[in-house]
Design a protein that fits this description.
- By secondary structure, the protein is mainly α.
- It has one domain: Serine Threonine Protein Phosphatase 5, Tetratricopeptide repeat (Alpha Horseshoe).
- Helix content is 47%, strand content 4%.
- It has helices at 2-25, 28-31, 43-69, 96-115, 123-141, 164-169, 174-187, 204-221, 229-238, 268-271, 278-286, 292-295, 347-359, 367-381, 402-413, 418-428, 453-458, 460-469; strands spanning 73-75, 144-145, 161-162, 249-252, 274-276, 341-345.
- This is SusD/RagB family nutrient-binding outer membrane lipoprotein.
Length: 484
């Protein structure tokens, strides 16, 4: 009887506890959910965030660090990066977290598009952006975490590194995502508009043109490893790529905060750290190119509005520099940033790529006409009048090595996208960059960015293997498409 009563007591206690638990946890999720904080982010908000954050941050990175690697500008101080100690980013020089953050956010858009039919209009743009950002990432660093990376809770936090070749050519890689993105856009029959699109204002045809231009860029970039002729000719004949400046994949900065170019928000001492490089000065002067006055200011000590550049990579501790003797960045980068764009792809870049493809014999087309169109569009993009004799003088395609002329002109136009200029130099050898003043890399121009220190700490085992494959994470080890 005693045991029976004990059993009844236990059962009663359990029933009572269960009832109390249910009472206490009734509406638990509702009570403990912040009504002002949505559980799931809408894809339109994520799309706007990804485009703006990537464009804004990489424009700043492209100017402060990319322009040093590409020898557009020279840094006077805080310039270990300019001296090619690339493991010591200062005012810029660490694009890794920027690209991965936005690839992760973009992956959320893609997942929402694939899981929910009401969001399917976002599949095409998210695939195209994934290809675009992945291309920037692997072209800077080489082999990187890709197939196991930027998937949030769905994948390992220590992703393995994938070969650049696989990232370009594999399923769900760069070229595959471009093709799938185009297909998704062409097959979209829904009525829900694409919102949050600050590149094309929801115009799906604009995204298709962007994707085709990006495919052109990818095929040309890996042209040393596989013949792109058949695909490029078909793409050229179809004609559905960015061909006019009005179709550019860009968004505008403003003159005032919070959406002006970040260089305008730096304290004056940091802004004054960047001056015209000797490489850029000589190229623009040799071409009699008036864009020098768009990109830079006459140096303060000049009596006749002249421009003066400085060789990259000075040893600031051993060299005395008078700022007034060198040309600072132009007003477009500080006082008038409303004239600037965050530039993803443009008509002039597309036409320079086509001109190169024609010159290499990859497509049947008139390389001179394509080149002249590209130069004309680049001048218009930068708001500078094209001199009447510019394309018949030193800048004429027939004046010297045609490929050098094409890449040099594309390099000039890529000011603010300096990483692109450096990547194209690595791919083609043009323009001819200079041995810097006080190199910390044995007078060798780097051919890849090093994996950042946080990878060694957070992804040690995979980083160790990747570092071994790049001669101990050497900045002198070429990436796959640069491996002739």
């Amino acid at each position: 009887m005693k045991n029976r009563n004990k059993t009844i007591s236990i059962v009663f206690t359990l029933v009572l506890s269960t009832a109390l638990f249910q009472a206490c946890t009734k509406d638990f999720e509702g009570i403990n959910t912040n009504p002002n904080q949505p559980i799931a982010v809408e894809p339109n908000l994520l799309l706007r965030q990804v485009i703006y954050d990537y464009g804004e941050q990489m424009s700043y990175e492209g100017f402060t660090a990319g322009n040093l690697l590409g020898q557009y500008s020279t840094a006077l101080d805080f310039n270990l990066f300019d001296r090619h100690d690339l493991k010591s980013p200062q005012l810029g020089g660490n694009p890794w977290p920027i690209i991965y953050k936005n690839l992760r956010d973009n992956e959320s858009i893609l997942e929402l598009a694939l899981e929910n039919p009401t969001h399917e209009v976002y599949e095409g743009p998210s695939r195209i952006l994934k290809a675009y950002m992945a291309m920037a990432l692997t072209d800077l660093f080489g082999d990187v975490p890709y197939y196991e990376a930027f998937r949030g809770d769905a994948a390992t936090v220590t992703p393995s590194y994938d070969a650049q070749e696989a990232i370009y050519l594999g399923e769900e890689g760069i070229l595959d995502n471009i093709d799938k993105g185009i297909t998704a856009l062409e097959n979209y029959e829904g009525t829900i508009a694409l919102e949050g699109d600050i590149l094309f204002e929801g115009d799906l045809e604009g995204w298709i043109r962007f994707a085709n231009s990006l495919k052109l860029k990818a095929l040309v970039r890996i042209g040393s490893q596989q013949d792109p002729s058949t695909e490029l000719q078909a793409l050229f004949d179809a004609g559905n790529f960015i061909s006019l400046n009005e179709e550019n994949a860009v968004f505008d900065f403003t003159n005032g905060e919070p959406n002006n170019f970040r260089l305008a928000r730096l304290r004056i001492g940091d802004f004054n750290n960047f001056v015209l490089s000797e490489t850029m000065e000589d190229i623009l002067k040799d071409l009699e190119d008036p864009r020098i006055a768009t990109f830079y200011r006459p140096f303060a000590n000049s009596d006749s509005a002249e421009f003066n550049g400085l060789l990259n990579g000075i040893d600031a501790s051993q060299t005395s520099i008078n700022l007034a003797d060198y040309s600072l960045a132009g007003t477009i980068f500080r006082e008038e940033t409303g004239r600037l764009d965050a530039n993803f792809m443009t008509a002039w870049e597309t036409h320079f790529l086509w001109a190169e493809a024609a010159e290499r014999g990859w497509i049947t087309a008139n390389s001179t006409a394509l080149y002249n169109t590209a130069v004309t569009q680049a001048f218009a993009y930068w708001g500078t009048d094209l001199p009447e004799n510019y394309l018949t003088g030193p800048a004429a395609l027939a004046n010297g090595d045609a490929l050098q002329q094409i890449i040099t002109q594309k390099w000039i136009a890529n000011t603010i996208n300096g990483y692109e200029g450096w990547i194209e130099f690595r791919r083609t050898g043009f323009p001819q960059l200079r041995t810097i003043s006080a190199s910390l890399n044995n007078d060798v121009i780097p051919v890849r960015m090093p994996y950042p220190a946080e990878e060694q700490a957070l992804n040690a085992e995979n980083h160790e293997e990747a570092a071994a494959n790049t001669n101990d994470n050497s900045i002198n080890t070429p990436v796959w498409w640069d491996n002739d």
